[in-house]
Amino acid sequence: MLDGKKVTRKLVGSEDERAVSPVIGVILMVAITVILAAVIAAFVLDLGDSIDSEAQAGVSVDNSVTDAETQVTWQSEGNSERVTINITLSQVDDTGEATAEETLDSVGDSVTFDAENYDEWVDDSDYDPVEGEGDESVAGEVVVTAETDEGVTTVVSSDTVEWEDAEVDDN
Predict the structure, then answer these.
(1) What is the full DSSP assignment across 115-170?
(2) Is 163 within 8 Å of 138 (Cβ atoms)?
(3) CATH T-level assignment (fold) for domain 58-167
(4) How far is 119 from 104, CA to CA, in rounded Å?
(5) Distance from C-alpha of 33 to C-alpha of 105, rounded to nearest angstrom
(6) Domain limits of the chain?
(7) Could you read off the pLDDT of 104-155 as tens digits, one per residue?
(8) 15 vs 3, 29, 102, 139, CA distance in Å?
(9) Phi, psi for residue 2 in degrees, rounded to 5
C-alpha cells in the first residue's frame, strides 16, 4: 500500500534536504512575475520612445551698461534647430514698454539690441524711450529659448538688462 509520507519525502525531500523555505520560493516567484510584467508593459506601451528630450543650446548674453546694449550670441548647437531671443525693456521713469523677438538660425549668429537703434528692433511702434527727455534709465529682461526640430522649446538663458542714462536716438 502507498504511504503518503513516504511518497512526499521522495518527491519533496525531507526537512534536511530542502534548500529554502516555501515562503521564500513564493516571494521570489511573485517578484520575477512582477518584473517580467513591467518589462513587457514597457515594450508594449512604448514608454521609452515617447519622452522628448529638452532643447539644449549654449548662448552668451553680454550686457554693456556703458554702451547701453545687449548682445546675444549662439555658441553651441546641442540638439537645437534655432534659438529665439525675447527682450522686454521699460523705462524706469515711464510706463512705456518695448518688446522684440529675434531668431538665430545657426551657431555663431548674434544679435545686438541697443538704445541707439531701438526703432529697428522694437515690435511696438508706440514705444518711445526718449519722451523728449534725452537720457533715460532703461531696465528689462532678455529670455533666450532653444527649439528642437520636434518643436520642444526650453529656456536656456534669462538675464536682466539695465541701461543707465541710455542715450536713445529718437529718429
Answers:
(1) GGGHHHH-S-TT--S-TT-SEEEEEEEEEEEEE-TT--EEEEEEEEEEEEEEE---
(2) yes
(3) Immunoglobulin-like (2.60.40)
(4) 20
(5) 51
(6) 4-45, 58-167
(7) 888 888 888 776 666 665 555 444 444 434 445 677 888 888 888 888 888 8
(8) 18, 21, 79, 83
(9) -85, 130
